[in-house]
Amino acid sequence: MSTPTPAEAAQSHHGAAGESVIKAGYDNRLTNTDLAPLKEQKWTWYNIFAFWMSDVHSVGGYVFAGSLFALGIAAWQVLVALVVGIVAVNILSNLVAKPSQIAGVPYPVTTRVSFGVKGANIPAIIRGAIAVVWYGIQTYLASVAFGLLALKFWPGLEPWGDVDQHGFMGLSALGWAGFLLMWVLQAFVFWNGMDTIRKFIDFCGPAVYVVMIALAGYLIAKAGWGNVSLDLSVGDGLTGWSSVTMMISAFALVVSYFSGPMLNFGDFSRYGKTFREVKKGNFWGLPVNFLFFSLLVVCTVSAAVTVIGTDADGNIITDPVHIVDKIDNTTAAVLGVLTFAIATIGINIVANFVSPAFDFSNVAPTKISWRTGGMIAAIGSVLITPWNLFNNPTAIHYTMDTLGAVIGPLFGILIADFYLVKKQKIVVDDLFTMKPEGTYWYRNGWNPVAVGSTVFASILPICVVIFGTAYQASFTWFIGAGLGMAVYWLGMKFVPTQLIYGSAPTAHTTTDIAVDAAGEPDPTPEPVIAGAAAEEAPSS
C-alpha cells in the first residue's frame, strides 16, 4: 500500500451524528461530518435491541399488534404468521445492516454503490418523503394523549378541543397545543445529537415495558384470567382456505409494517461495534421483543374489554391511549398516557427523524447538515397537516401505499447490488469522489440500470395499490422488492458496459484503500478484493 500524501491525510471531525473521518481528497459536494465514515463504532447489541424496542413500543405498534389478532383467524394462526413474519424481518434487516456497518456510513451513502454518487439522491428523497409523512402522523397520534390528559384534569378546556368552536386548518386549539408540545419535545431530543438519542432509546425501551406490564397486570387482575383471550376477532371467524390466505396476509403485513425502518436500518447499524453485535441486537429486538410485545398487547386489550368495555360503536378498543384514558384510576391513566407519548417520541425519532436527516443532508451536504435535514422534515410534517391526512382513510391509503410501493424496489436493488453484483465489497473512499474514474461514478454520476429498475419495479406495485384490493395491496412490498432485485441484477449482467458507464474509461478505484466483506482494509492495490464474506466485521 502506498504512503498517503498530505492531500490524502484524514482528519477527524465531530458532528451531531458522531465523530467522522474526512480525507482531504473527499469531494465536498458529497461529504460533510455527518455523512463521512465514522471514526469509531461504539454501539453494542443492547443499543440495537433498544432501537427496535423504541421502534415497536408506540401507539401505532400497539394498534397494529392488536389488529393482527382481530383478523378473524385462530390465535395460533396469528402467532405462526407473526413469528414467520418477524423472523423474515430479522433476516432482511441483517442483510441491510452489513454494508453500512462495514463502511461506517448511513443508508443514503450506501445507495451510492448501486445508484451512483449523484443518483443516490433518488432513494434518499423517496425515503425522506415517506418519513416526513409518518413523522407528522405519529406526532399527531401521540399529541392526542396530551389532549386527553388535559381534559382529565381541566374539563373546562373541552370547548377548546372542539375544532368547530376553536379550530384552525382542521385541528382544534387544544389539538394544536398537544401537537406543538410533542413537536418541540422531539426536536429537543434530536437536536442534541445521536449520542443523546442513543441514551434516550436505551432508557425508554425498558421503561415503557415496565409500565406496559404494570398496565396489563392491573387490567388482567380486574378482569380475571377467565376473561383474557388471544382471539380478538368478532363473529364466527374464518376457516379453510380463507384462514390460510388471511395468515399469508398477516405475514405480509408484519413485513410491510417494518419496511420503512428496515430500509434505512443502515443509519443505525453504521454505529455497531461489529456485525455480530448488530445481528445479536436484531435477534433480541425483533423476534424476541416483538413476539413478547404482541402477546402483552393482546392480553391487555382483551382484559380491557371486560374492565372498560367497548367504544360507542361496539368495537374493541385497541388504542392504548384511549384504554388508559378510560381507566377509573387517575394515577394509572396519567402514567399510561405519558408513557405512550414518550414511547411514540422514541419511534418517531429513530424511524422518522434520523432517516430524513441523513437523506436530505445527502442531497446537498455543504448546505444541509444532519440537524438541518431533520428540521426540514419536522417543518414539513406540520405543512402536510397530518391530522387531515390521517382522518381521511382514502387519502392516507393512496398516499402512503403508493410511496410504500417504491420502498420494495429500493430494498431489492440494494440487496442485489451488494450481495450479487459487488460481492459484499465497498470501496469506501470512492463513495466520496466525483472523479469519472471513481468506482461509483457510472454514467455522469448516475447508474441508469438502478434508476430504470426503480421505475420499472414500482409500476406494478403502484397499479396494485390503485386498482387492486386491500388484500392484494398488502403484498406490494414483496412485488416491488422481487422485481427490483431481479431487474437490477439482470440489467447489471446483460446491459452493455458503455450504456452503464458512458464514454468514460471503465471505472476503477481512485484509492488503494478498499473495504472487503469482512470490513478489513485490503492490503493490495487492486480494486477487486478476493475472499468470502466474514462472519464478523470489526469496527472502523
The total count of strands amounts to: 4
CATH-defined architecture? Orthogonal Bundle
Q: Percent of residues in beta strands?
A: under 5%
* Chain-averaged pLDDT: 85
> What letter string, H or E per element, gives the SSE order?
EEHHHHHHEEHHHHHHHHHHHHHHHH
Number of domains: 1
The percent range for helix content is: 55-70%
* Poorly predicted segments: 507-514, 519-540
Region (Disordered): 518-540
Family: Belongs to the purine-cytosine permease (2.A.39) family.
Main location: membrane
Protein name: Putative allantoin permease
Please give a structural write-up.
With 540 residues, the chain is mainly alpha-helical. The chain has one domain: Hydantoin permease, CATH 1.10.4160.10. It is 63% helix and 3% strand. The chain has helices spanning 45-56, 59-68, 75-103, 107-110, 112-115, 121-153, 173-191, 194-223, 240-257, 259-263, 266-269, 275-308, 320-326, 330-352, 354-363, 370-383, 386-390, 393-421, 448-467, 470-473, 476-494, 497-501; strands spanning 10-15, 18-23, 167-168, 171-172. The strands form 2 sheets. Strands 1-2 form a two-stranded antiparallel ribbon. Strand 3 (167-168) and strand 4 (171-172) form a beta hairpin. Helix 6 (121-153) packs across helix 16, helix 6 crosses helix 18 and helix 8 packs antiparallel against helix 14. The relative contact order is 0.17.
